[in-house]
Design goal:
Blueprint (H helix, E strand, L loop, with lengths): L6 E3 L4 H10 L3 E4 L5 H6 L7 E4 L9 E4 L2 E5 L4 H5 L2 H6 L1 H8 L4 H6 L2 H7 L6 H7 L3 E6 L2 E6 H4 E3 L2 E2 L6 E8 L5 E9 L6 E11 L5 E9 L6 E2 L1 H7 L6 H8 L16 H24 L1
Parallel strand pairs: 1-3, 2-3
Antiparallel strand pairs: 4-5, 5-10, 6-7, 6-10, 8-9, 11-12, 12-13, 13-14
Helix pairs in contact: 10-11, 11-12
The chain binds flavin-adenine dinucleotide (FAD).
The site of flavin-adenine dinucleotide has 31 residues, from strand 2, helix 2, helix 7 and strand 10.
């Protein structure tokens, strides 16, 4: 099916893009187009105006500034997967990017597009929650930094207003003795996560778990932090028994999605099993 007709605008700066967004109420931002264009072709979305942000230089690239990694919203999944900065300072992000779709999708799709779209089965949200990223939202004349924890509201819904642009993702550089892992069960046709678990741990002086973070995607209508699991492990010895016990709480209070690909019970089961596996791998990597 063809999309409904639309006007196409291509700003060359963030200032121009936010000005266009402020003056076109029925506009949609186009980044990699790998979620928006399928929706337009199915006529689930019919924006009157597309504002293509794909060629704004300030929205692309990854840099390090004062202990933070700054990732431009239009950085492709592939650029993140292959970034030496991410691999060295926050490998969880590179590993997550590598797990997305196939090579064509990774070469066009962007981190900002994935986060803004908020598909409940997308991979990025799990990792973004686990690394405690902050998302920079810019509108004409104003900007704000939103913690990842507060960004996702529900299925395909975030705190972003229609005139706001996600411009950057800010991520702290890992402290020493930090390990991480992203593990997913892909839906065989699309590659989207039936369940995806991102775990990141930092070990203290006596191999205790100084910091534990677990982000889970694919299970419920929005990605979440497995706080009961995290709290059970905080300050504890990093043993397989403690992890196995804590992972049983990874779905505490979670209402799971069910569809033709997986029942709610199966998703909950996967989340608990993959939380255990991701944490064990993260601990192994933190030990070096
Ligand atoms: C065959 C296929 C397989 C896929 N497999 C996976 C997978 O395994 N895992 C996975 O996570 N994803 C998967 N995806 C989705 C893919 O990762 C998309 O690239 C991503 O979801 C959207 O990014 P995009 O840059 O293409 O955004 P677009 O499609 O351009 O935009 C998506 C939405 O976000 C908005 N938007 C985009 N950028 C911004 C911004 N900077 N500020 C504000 N709003 C913005 C748009 O207006 C639109 O509403 C798959 C897609 C396809 C087609």
């Amino acid at each position: 099916m063809f999309p409904r007709p639309f006007d196409y605008l291509r700003p060359t700066s963030v200032a121009e893009a936010t000005r266009l967004l402020a003056s076109h109420a029925e506009a949609k931002v186009l980044a990699g187009g790998h979620s928006l264009l399928p929706m337009m072709k199915l006529r689930l979305a019919s924006p009157r105006v597309l504002i293509d942000i794909g060629r704004i230089p300030e929205l692309t690239g990854i840099r390090e500034e004062n202990g933070m990694l700054i990732i431009g919203a239009c950085t492709t999944h592939y650029a993140a997967e292959s970034s030496p900065l991410l691999r060295r300072h926050c490998p969880l992000l590179a590993e997550t990017a590598a797990a997305i779709g196939d090579v064509q999708v990774r070469n066009r799709g962007t981190i900002g597009g994935s986060l803004a779209h908020a598909d409940p089965a997308a991979d990025w949200p799990a990792a973004i929650l686990a690394v405690e990223a902050q998302l920079k939202l810019v509108r004409r004349g104003a900007e704000r930094l939103v913690p990842a924890r507060d960004f996702f509201v529900d299925l395909l819904t975030t705190v972003m207003q229609s005139d706001e642009l996600l411009t950057e993702i800010h991520v702290p550089v890992n402290p020493p003795r930090t390990g991480s892992a992203y593990l997913k069960v892909p839906q065989p046709a699309s590659g989207f996560a039936l369940t995806g678990v991102a775990a990141q741990v930092t070990l203290g002086p006596n191999n205790t778990l100084e910091r534990v973070a677990v982000g889970i995607t694919g299970v419920s209508s929005k990605p979440y932090r497995a706080t009961a699991t995290e709290q059970a492990l905080q300050g504890q010895a990093a043993t397989a028994e403690a992890v196995a016990q804590a992972a049983t709480q990874a779905t505490a209070g979670v209402e799971a999605l069910a569809d033709i690909h997986a029942s709610a019970e199966y998703r909950l089961h996967l989340a608990r099993v993959y939380t255990k596996r991701a944490l064990l791998r993260a601990i192994e990597r933190a030990r070096g």
